[in-house]
Amino acid sequence: MTLRVLVGPDTDDLAELYAVPRLPWLRVNMVSTLDGAATGSSGTSGSINNAADKQVFDQLRAMADAIVVGAGTARAEGYGPADRPIVVVSRSGEVPAGLRGAPEGTVLLATCAVAEGLDEARGILGADHVLVLGPDRVDLLGLKHALLDRGWTNLLCEGGPHLLRDLVACGAADEICATYVPLLVAGHHPRITAGAPVDVPLDLHLLLEDGGTIMGRWLTR
Fold first, then answer.
1. Among 5, 117, 163, 176, which residue has the fewest nearby CB atoms (within 10 Å)?
2. 84 Cβ contact list (under 8 Å, min separation 6)
3. Full DSSP string of 63-113
4. pLDDT at position 1, please?
5. What is the pLDDT of residue 2?
6. C-alpha to C-alpha distance for 119 and 142, rounded to whole angstroms
C-alpha cells in the first residue's frame, strides 16, 4: 500500500482517506497525548481529544456497521445509545448504566459463560442480544465472526486499552487508527494498550496533520 502524508486535509476527503481496503474489517480508534496518556485530568479521553480528533471519530462511526467497546470504557466515557449498534465486551456480563434503556437490538453484550451478570443482562437486553463466547473469558475472534454473521462487516472498536491489546494479540484487529494530540499531561494515566506484553508489527498506511494534531492509520500484518 502507498503511504499518504497530508497536511490540513479537507474534511470532505475523510471518507475516502479512511475507506477500508476490503471487507470484513475491524479497526480500533484511540487517542493519546504526545507523552503517551490515553486520558487526561478527567480520567477520560474527553479531556485530551480535540476538534480534529472528533472529525475522525465521527467519520469512523459513520462508516461502521457496529461499534465495539469494552464495558469499562463505556462506563467511564458515559456511553449512551448511538445511531449504530453498540457491542459491549464484558467478562462480568454487566450492562453499563447508560446503555440499559436503549431500544431493543441496538445494544449487544459479548460475555462468557461464567459471567455473574449473565442472567441480568439477558433480562435487560433480551437473550438474542447477549453473546456467550467462551467459558471464562470472551473469545474475541469468535465475537468478530458472530458480528459478521449478523451482516456487520465494517467494525469499529473504540477501546479501551485492555480490549485493544487483546484484539491485536489474538489477530482480530486489522487496523489501528491513532490520534496524537499536541499536549503533555505527565502524571499517571493509561496508555492506549494495557495488559500482558505483545509483539505486533504494524505498517503505516496514512498520516494526517491538522493544527499540530497527528492522525494515522496503521495496518496489522
1. 5
2. 61, 64, 65, 66, 67, 156
3. H-SEEEEEHHHHHHTT----SS-EEEE-SS-PPPGGGTTSPTTSEEEEE-T
4. 44
5. 46
6. 21
Indicate the residue type of 204.
Answer: L
Half-sphere exposure (Cβ direction) of 213: Cα atoms closer than 13 Å: 19
Query: Of 164, 186, 196, which is closest to residue 33 (Cα–Cα)?
Result: 186
First to last CA, the chain: 12
What type of residue sits at position 178?
A: A
The residue type found at 175 is: E
Given this model, what pLDDT does residue 210 score? Answer: 87
What topology is assigned to 4-220 in CATH?
Dihydrofolate Reductase, subunit A (3.40.430)
Which residue numbers in the chain have pLDDT < 70? 1-12
Question: Which grid cell sits at 86?
Answer: 453498540
Separation CA 189–CA 202 (nearest Å): 24
* Grid cell listed for 77: 466515557
The cell numbers describing 88, all together, are: 459491549
**What phi and psi values does residue 100 have, to the nearest 5 degrees?**
-70, -30
Using an 8 Å Cβ cutoff, are 121 and 115 in contact?
A: yes
Alpha helices in the chain (DSSP H): 14-17, 51-63, 71-76, 118-125, 140-149, 161-170
Q: Which are the contacts of 96, defined by CB distance < 8 A and separation ≥ 6? A: 71, 74, 75, 79, 88
Query: What contacts 106, CB < 8 A, 6 or more positions away?
Result: 81, 82, 85, 86
| Exposed/middle/buried for residue 104 (C-beta within 10 Å: 0-12, 13-18, 19+) | exposed
